[in-house]
Amino acid sequence: MLFAIIATDHPDRLQQRLAFRSEHRARLDALQAEGRLLTAQLVDLSGSPVDLQAQQGRPMVLNLWATWCPPCRREMPMMVDVAQAQDEVDIVFANQGETTESIGVFLEQSGLPPTGILRDPNSALMQ
Q1: Which of 1, 26, 46, 66, by CA, is between 20 and 30 Å from 104?
Q2: Quick one: pLDDT at residue 90?
């Protein structure tokens, strides 16, 4: 998981951000202890299963998206650029419930590569 703390001139805001980070770290730890963190069955665009747990110990950003989502469509080119520029953080794009064909059409029309694109066929990550 990737957590960013942005330095600020306002000590109160920094304290709020640290508390927010601590709260989310505790929530993630609880989910992982319960075995609920990243248990969704993801597949790549060829249909092969992908185990995100195998990448433990390496920071990862998991971006949920769909072709029918206007904010997702707007942010994908920027997010793909960021993903390609990162060597220290894995950025994975998990499409929510759409077919390989519809994803492929979107990627082609947008001029985006399929690198890092996964499918969450049952939209399990959104539940």
Answers
A1: 1
A2: 87
